[in-house]
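Notes continue from the previous slide.

Worked example: a multi-chain complex. Inputs as given:
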Amino acid sequence: MKLNTIFQVLVPKDNKFISLFEKGAINLVKTSELLKELVLVSDDIEKRNSMIKGIKEFEKCGDEVTHTIFDELNKTFITPFDRDDIQSLTSSIDDVVDGINSACKKIKLYNPKKLSPEFTKMADYIYEASVEINRAIADLKNIKNSPKIHEACININTIENLADDLNHQYLSNLFEYEKDAIELIKMKEIMQNLERAVDCAENVSDVLKAIIIKNA
Amino acid sequence: MKLNTIFQVLVPKDNKFISLFEKGAINLVKTSELLKELVLVSDDIEKRNSMIKGIKEFEKCGDEVTHTIFDELNKTFITPFDRDDIQSLTSSIDDVVDGINSACKKIKLYNPKKLSPEFTKMADYIYEASVEINRAIADLKNIKNSPKIHEACININTIENLADDLNHQYLSNLFEYEKDAIELIKMKEIMQNLERAVDCAENVSDVLKAIIIKNA
Amino acid sequence: MKLNTIFQVLVPKDNKFISLFEKGAINLVKTSELLKELVLVSDDIEKRNSMIKGIKEFEKCGDEVTHTIFDELNKTFITPFDRDDIQSLTSSIDDVVDGINSACKKIKLYNPKKLSPEFTKMADYIYEASVEINRAIADLKNIKNSPKIHEACININTIENLADDLNHQYLSNLFEYEKDAIELIKMKEIMQNLERAVDCAENVSDVLKAIIIKNA
């Protein structure tokens, strides 16, 4: 048993780190909510671009939370979990927001004519995974919640599998039916960027699983 | 001299880890054998897709070997080489199989009209590199075999250089002669995925070289 | 205070490592100088290909410097900065040269008809960032120069932001006006490779910033 682990037992878990994780997770939910709206207004370029700006703002907000957590980590002697886990959890949540932002940057740059219903579906998956992450983070306060956290992780994995299938189905159709090569490039890359955001959500789930195993 | 190193001298090398590495390496050879067949039947979509399923099965099998080795590593006090090297060797072999599987997934998704002879050549290189890996792994049993392992590593590096040249030559021709942009995208990505599998084989060779230097 | 840090205070900074860093940085400046020329002669294929060969030579030279530094590191007990920082600085400088070489390999393979003025601009940014890196490395000799190093880092960050904007503007125009999908693929990838070289220059700046903070 490491010294930090011994101290952790004595320290209440509802501390500043949990609050900061919650801040990051809520920011992620807001980001994916806006993404859901964005893919629906794909024919109104002006509205779309203003939403992309909004997502960029959420991305900056996520960066701030990340920096605050890393600063706190440098100032704090006893942490609620291992330092590495706090870092991984922070970065992995931030990566989902970054992933959404990257996809949106491509939407702005490539300016696709229309985003098909598969993009709406993929944005739904990202939103659902974000909600599960947010739920799991809220449950981190009490280690007795670990079965609930575990359940959220299973849900995220299920969502990732569905997103993977959707991406494959979409790509396969795209290569079969889209005859405009430039539109194909646009769609393929935007969809891949969105799918990568779901992969990032799965990374959050992996970090959460590792944390509950260690702290069980 | 680290404690583990002292014990290693006293422990026979033909243990469960070597057997598991062999299992992984044989699985790799089988995967690349099937890939060789697959690129040849490129005009029979049904046959091709059934072979892609077969490669997916090999990929799962490789994952199982990897998990077994990692589990054993957690249970084992004295290991035949450094833990990090066992992990790297395991992961690097798995990466070659994953690389082949990724390329095949793209073949299924993109459904190219025909795979040109360069794909047959690239599949040959992957197969040859896999055979060298398998040979080197079999020789790991006895540290006296290190010159033979070293020779296998040199052969893998030569194969990687040839694969690199082939990929460049192919890409250059593709951009000169292929006028269908969508077919170009398909071919370019599938070839790059195959070439990356050869890069992964070179990573195995790098790990093997590090192991024989440390244990010489 | 770590033992190495105590010794570092007693050891003059103008040692073999600084000379090797300078060698690497000068090689980088030469590479980016040649890149600047290369993008200007984009219509003379023969001349262009001979310049690409020249860049390949610089890349090999950079590799040699890297290997020499890593060898010295293994032989040296007391280093002017932390070993990890020496490794990171070495690798990050090498990555810029590698990035330029990768972009040039793509120019050779894809053989684009013409490189537009945006490529000249991007090559200028890479050159400017390289000059700043070279300046900062020369200033590493004396820790009193840290404000000058810091200034160079700020300049590199500014250049990276400009390069990012240029890449975005270029991509956006490309997807709006380029109707030849194959030319679009060529341009998009070459520009992205060049932009990545600027990202690598920013990594050098991050390593330099970390070094001056630790050694201040």
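Summary box: The CA atoms of residues 102 and 193 of chain C lie 7 Å apart. Chain C has a mean pLDDT of 91.
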